[in-house]
Amino acid sequence: MQPQLTILPLSNARRDEVAELILPIQQTEFHVPITLADQPDLADLEAAYFRPGGHFWGAFVDGELAGTIGLLVPVPAGDSRGVIHPPIGVIRKMFVKPPFRGKQWGVAQRLLETLVTYSRENGLEHLYLGTITSMKAAHRFYERNGFVRVEKTALPTIFPLMPVDDVFYHLEIRSYNSSLAQP
Does the UniProt entry include the keyword Transcription regulation (predicted)? Predict the structure, then answer.
């Protein structure tokens, strides 16, 4: 029987489960010097992602949380209207547990497709993300999906920088085609 993959929104009720998935990947697998306290978005998913107009999803394989992805919609400081031109989103917390990685599972691809579809439907035009040099497989994944590597200086001024990130990507949403990622 084929495992069931389901993508669902995640709220604060699942924040401990989200942290338990993300922290070992960051700290143990990739040796990123970051703690839960360094990531306040994990303490309040709803305030960090949903309230500004973004979203946070989890991928479940037969009921087990296998991966996550978040969409931040940054708002300029002091802007009560929350209007950004052009409208951008920032991908955060895209992590997949090691046993569920790879094309055979499709977890990362489904998470990204869900985020891009939501972004498109909600009027966003550009997506950005930051990652670290050692996450080579992630770089290849984003590039297969049409993301273009950009210099830090090319990021929008409202991009929320994470101190550990040193590699950045951009995607113009209208150019996204999920078939790019297929072999």
Answer: no
